[in-house]
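Structure (tokenized):
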């Protein structure tokens, strides 16, 4: 990606200690993103102190889960934010460490004078019915929150593990997963509504699909650790950039990095023609 682009990466780490032991920091030194949104840190503040507050010259801002070794999100950035918002005001889900928002507000900037970059980790419903119902509660809470940011005049890009494959082209085995969490009709409908551009929709844009509307095998960002899923590329596209239309229109390039494995997810980077 060219130096003129603002590069924004998203990666579910599946544990920051694990991912760094597998080389993610060295990769960041080479890739040099402007910001990376991370999910599933699986650490608390004392675990981060003196080691993970910064990675590859990027300063981190985090929301940790109350439960040890669980969830947690962060944004590492080269640029100083004007504000950091920890959580989105949910009594149920903020304690799980699922949302951190960095604001880069620059009055007078021609493009996106009010910009929010959000790292978000959506719940998984795969462990059982209770967690699936909780996931639906999370979805019901998050959409109006995102719309309020948008209608308040902010450009927004949410990066994260959404734990939803939106369309049949977003997973290898779509026929066998129609009744499984991550590809349920209700989850897919939620995403469709969020992306719908009319008055009944959320008006956000799936940036990867804006750039790559038809890819299948190349689009996957997560592979099960069971069997030979990665070797056979039996994957899912679970990691997204979801942006307001004006910011999504600045996207020029995308890359899903698969040459090394730091996690069961692959990092997805989008280059935006934008000067922060």
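Design, position by position:
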């Amino acid at each position: 990606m060219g130096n003129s682009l603002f590069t924004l990466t998203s990666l579910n780490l599946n544990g920051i200690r694990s991912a760094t032991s597998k080389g993610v920091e060295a990769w960041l030194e080479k890739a040099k993103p402007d910001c990376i949104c991370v999910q599933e840190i699986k650490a608390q503040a004392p675990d981060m102190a003196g080691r993970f507050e910064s990675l590859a010259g990027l300063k981190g801002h985090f929301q940790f889960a109350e439960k040890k070794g669980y969830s947690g999100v962060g944004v590492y950035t080269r640029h100083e934010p004007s504000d950091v918002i920890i959580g989105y005001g949910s009594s149920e889900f903020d304690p799980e460490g699922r949302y951190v928002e960095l604001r880069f507000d620059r009055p007078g900037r021609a493009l996106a004078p009010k910009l929010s970059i959000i790292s978000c980790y959506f719940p998984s419903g795969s462990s059982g019915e209770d967690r699936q119902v909780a996931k639906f509660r999370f979805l019901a809470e998050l959409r109006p929150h995102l719309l309020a940011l948008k209608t308040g005049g902010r450009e927004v890009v949410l990066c994260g593990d959404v734990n939803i494959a939106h369309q049949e082209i977003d997973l290898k085995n779509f026929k066998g997963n129609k009744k499984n969490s991550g590809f349920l009709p209700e989850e897919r409908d939620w995403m469709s509504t969020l992306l719908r551009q009319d008055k009944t929709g959320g008006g956000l844009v799936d940036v990867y699909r804006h750039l790559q509307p038809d890819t299948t095998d190349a689009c996957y960002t997560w592979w099960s650790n069971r069997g030979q899923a990665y070797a056979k590329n039996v994957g899912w596209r679970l990691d997204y950039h979801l942006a307001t239309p004006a910011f999504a229109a600045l996207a020029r390039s995308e890359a899903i990095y698969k040459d090394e494995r730091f996690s069961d997810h692959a990092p997805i980077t989008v280059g935006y023609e934008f000067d922060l």
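Reviewer-requested clarification: Residues 8-272 form a domain with the Deoxyribonuclease I; Chain A fold (CATH 3.60.10.10). Residues 62 and 74 are 4 Å apart (CA to CA).
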